[in-house]
Amino acid sequence: MHLTSVLVIGATVIALLVLAVYVIAVRTPEGKLDHVGGMRLVLWLGAIFPTVVLTALLLWALPAMRPLPHQSGDLRIQVQGEQFWWRLRYEDGNGPGVISANEVRVPVGRTVVFDVTATDVVHSFWIPGLGGKMDMIPGRINRLVVKADKPGIFRGVCAEFCGLSHALMAFDVIAMEPSAFDAWLASARGVPARADGRGAELFSANGCGACHTVKGTPHTAMIGPDLTRLGERRSLAAGTLPPTLESTAAFIRNASRFKPGARMPAYSAMPIEDATEIARWLRSADGEAGR
Amino acid sequence: MNRDPLKWHERLRVSLWTLIVPPAVWAGHFLFSYLWASISCAKVGSFARFPTLFVAGTVVALAIILVSGWIAWKQQRMTGDPPPHESGTQIDRLRFIAKSTLLLAGLSFVAVLFSALPVAFLSDCR
Ligand SMILES: [Cu+2]
């Protein structure tokens, strides 16, 4: 990034200067510099030079902190921080909002408006690679405008201590080419095809539908993350576990073993085979676009 | 011996109390900046377009710092005792405190400027 290179080069130049002064100081014979000269040196190199450099950096960096402009047609993503995961809703004005969780996708080169809030305690939404942090405060909507300028994967975290699993509350941001993003959003608006079977029955029988939504099934509860497209996420449980069958099954049986304080009950009595069946069913949905 | 009457800034003696004037003004200005920003965001609903009050507060803060720095500058230039400086004399103590006040005034001046600058660049309450 531009800022980074300027700062790195600046720091290197200053370090070399300090070294040079050091070498000169060691080589110069004693008594060469009188008291007044020494004081003058301290004044210029120790006070005036740093003040000028810092002022210049401040003047140069402050305009970059101005919020980006945005328009009413821009993609909006509502993000709600919950202990300890992220509830998402994409609104692009072409049809109903798309609900998702724990992984954000943004189109490269387009302005994206995040409206962030929280339901339980204060969280903070932070994608260091894309913008500053923004507090998520219950009862208040804060706005963060970002624009990704190259495709890639950025990591986001919760930056405000919010409870036992605060450090396990993260997410990936996938910046995609606009056309791939549009295709993804359109497919996320639909219902993915999903193999029926024992996993579906177990999901219902264990009451998972009391908290989770799986589109295309009778389960529409909104207490926990939407699981419709679990299979396409790059991580499980908000950046905590790898997106594998095994870890999904293990998480289902005992969520708070991996995330202390997680608001999902343990199913310790559930046989691992059943948990694996549910995990397979959840991960089986197709409809992947531009992973 | 007929001495000139002391000038007013020479009659004001720097002390530990005057020493803390510049940093106290800096602290006060810092608090003022936060109060000003939050009150204008809460009451006006947007960043105050013409931050007259803020500019006035900043100018006052800078002026107080400048004046105390100037007094300190004058006083630290009074003739001190000849070396060796083996015991703490009145005049040496004065010169020392004056010098410290001067340095603190320089620091506080820059600090007040730095905390005021963002207002010139930021344009809303986010
Ligand atoms: Cu959090």
UniProtKB/TrEMBL annotation, chain A:
Q: Where in the cell is it found?
A: Membrane
Which is an annotated Pfam family here?
Answer: Cytochrom_C
Q: Which InterPro entries would you find in this protein's record?
A: CcO_II, CcO_II-like_C, Copper_CuA, Cupredoxin, CuRO_CcO_Caa3_II, Cyt_c-like_dom, Cyt_c-like_dom_sf, Cyt_c_oxidase_su2
* First-listed, main subcellular location of the protein, grouped into a coarse class: membrane
The reaction(s) annotated as catalysed by this protein in its Swiss-Prot or TrEMBL entry are: 4 Fe(II)-[cytochrome c] + O2 + 8 H(+)(in) = 4 Fe(III)-[cytochrome c] + 2 H2O + 4 H(+)(out)
Q: Where is the Cytochrome oxidase subunit II copper A binding domain?
A: 72-187
The record's function comment reads: Subunits I and II form the functional core of the enzyme complex. Electrons originating in cytochrome c are transferred via heme a and Cu(A) to the binuclear center formed by heme a3 and Cu(B).
Per the similarity annotation, which family is this? Belongs to the cytochrome c oxidase subunit 2 family.
Entry protein name = Cytochrome aa3 subunit 2
